[in-house]
TrEMBL record:
<protein>
    <recommendedName>
        <fullName>DUF1618 domain-containing protein</fullName>
    </recommendedName>
</protein>
């Protein structure tokens, strides 16, 4: 099943929108997560994306930091509650981003996709920064613990860490925002952190920076938005072994999506990215689209006023694509 569109503002229950048309469209009421039923923790729940059929949330409270981690299968309804690593007691002022990944691999080290993916072991990676240093912790469902040590690396003067995470093989990537905008890299094999530097001229006067994958998920890319122009840069290693960024052909979303002048009053936003399907979710002032980065085919998913007129009226901050197998005649699923 292609990705479900999951519009999930912070500290609220998720809204779901299927990308398929009837009769294959999965009804949104099929998914239910009542975060506010848990009154003991307090604080707020924050959504941190979905990968391999699992969605991850963090409970965070000012002055106390991360208090609980929740892993949710939206299709089956299964929930897994995790306590944060004990080392976070000394990092209560640090806001962490997180992701969940399937830990099942082949003999060649490749991830195993298939019907049993969600029953396979998984890992949770927490990353955060105190403005000068980045930290990372890894939980393994196979060992049931976070390990004894945190990975660390200096990051300069970093103001915040982006919420979107992409995976390329054994590496995870997040945006580092600050006086210099760079990319944080985490190695899943040796549990080390490093920084991929982005030259200032690439992102001067930008309206949004978004890491993506290119070349069928094998290469790191960076989207730099300027109004409705989407400039994609590819991270390359040249024949001399020197790294650098190569600009690709810019995509003018106002022309591609046939946006009216009124829809371009505000810069076009990238709300989410589906690695498995190479689909980008973008929003104009009035509509949300799904765009395939390879073919540039697009589909209008919905209009913004559909949510403004609903009882759950709220702004849309992000889209987390969820791909899963769904049996309409059963409450069970696999992905």
């Amino acid at each position: 099943m292609p990705p479900e569109m999951d519009e999930m503002p912070l500290s609220d229950d998720p809204l779901f929108r299927a990308t398929l048309d009837a009769p294959d469209r999965v009804p949104p009421e099929r998914f239910s997560l009542r975060l506010h039923d848990d009154t003991e923790l307090g604080g707020n729940w924050y959504y941190h994306g979905c990968r391999h059929g699992r969605l991850l949330l963090l409970n965070w409270k000012s002055g106390l930091g991360c208090r609980q981690i929740l892993i949710w299968d939206p299709v089956s309804g299964d929930l897994i509650h995790l306590s944060p690593p004990p080392q976070l007691d000394a990092l209560k002022g640090v806001f962490f981003q997180a992701t969940v990944i399937c830990a099942a691999t082949t003999a060649a080290g490749d991830h195993v996709h298939g019907d049993n993916c969600k029953s396979n072991p998984f890992k949770v990676v927490l990353v955060g920064t105190d403005r000068s240093t980045a930290f990372a912790f890894v939980y393994s469902s196979e060992t049931g613990d976070w390990g004894d040590h945190a990975a660390e690396t200096p990051v300069g003067n970093c103001i915040s860490l982006g919420c979107r995470c992409i995976q390329i093989g054994d590496f995870l990537y997040w945006m580092l925002f600050g006086y210099d905008n760079n990319i944080l890299e985490f190695n899943l094999v040796n549990h080390s952190l490093s920084v991929v530097y982005v030259p200032t001229h690439i992102h001067e006067d930008h309206d949004g920076l978004y890491p993506i994958t290119l070349q069928e998920g094998t290469e790191l890319g960076l989207i730099v938005m300027s109004r409705s122009c989407m400039q994609i840069w590819q991270w390359m290693i040249d024949l001399d072994g020197l790294p650098g960024w190569l600009p690709l052909e810019p995509i003018y979303l106002d022309n591609l999506l046939h946006l009216s002048a009124g829809e371009c009053v505000n810069p076009t936003k990238v709300l989410g990215f589906s690695q498995d399907y190479n689909e980008l979710f973008v929003a104009s002032s009035t509509r949300i689209f799904m765009v395939n980065l390879e073919s540039l085919r697009f589909k209008e998913l919905c209009k913004m006023d559909e949510f403004l007129d609903s009882p759950d009226s709220r702004p849309i901050y992000a889209v987390y694509p969820i791909a899963s197998f769904y049996d309409a005649d059963s409450s069970s699923s696999s992905a």
